Amino acid sequence: QLQLQESGPGLVKPSETLSLTCTVSGGSISSSSYYWGWIRQPPGKGLEWIGSIYYSGSTYYNPSLKSRVTISVDTSKNQFSLKLSSVTAADTAVYYCASQEYSGYDCDAFDIWGQGTMVTVSS
Amino acid sequence: QSVLTQPPSASGTPGQRVTISCSGSSSNIGSNYVYWYQQLPGTAPKLLIYRNNQRPSGVPDRFSGSKSGTSASLAISGLRSEDEADYYCAAWDDTLGWVFGGGTKLTVL
Q1: Of B50, B95, B98, which is closest to A49 when you measure between CB atoms?
Q2: Using one digit for the tens of pLDDT, what is the confidence trace for A16-71?
Q3: From A59, which residue of chain B is nearest by alpha-carbon distance?
Q4: How far apart (Å, rounded) are the C-alpha atoms in residues A79 and A22?
Q5: A108 neighbourhood in chain B, CB within 8 Å
């Protein structure tokens, strides 16, 4: 059974870059059957998709965040990562990583989620 | 403002059947699958319904999903106190990517 775990700094200064890593266990990040995604949730608010990546490195991003987001994959470490640049207080949120089943044609939404990590943007 | 529209709250008494609606457009619900998530306080969302009406292994059959046109619904029958949670719908939008509803807080009275 897949398990995902987020890690990274809990506090980031305004204008700096937020960096998080998701470690996948119980399966290979190089599997052709999955995409890997990042979702965030500001305190007391709803869910927002950030972006997703395939093991090959193919990515797709939320258009509203695209200019600031980079998602990458490290198959040797079974990890994928998120970088969000020029952060402001509005980027304060719980950040989740999740898996998405991929049939080769259709990509489903997020099925297995990490526990989430709180990131606060503050000086 | 979320792309998918859900009522902010819903409620019911134990044993009742409640439904939560999710309204979208032709570019998301109208042409793609709908997914539902349950989020208990302080925890990560859990997939409840996928591809409109399919339940993952382990999800009780008290939970069911349906879709018609550009709207979808989640029904919970035999309501239990442990069903008190936030519920989110999600769908792929042909322009915006993955979009979520604003969430519905379900209270079991």
Answers
A1: B98
A2: 999 999 999 999 999 999 999 999 999 999 999 999 999 999 999 999 999 999 99
A3: B97
A4: 5
A5: 33, 35, 50-51
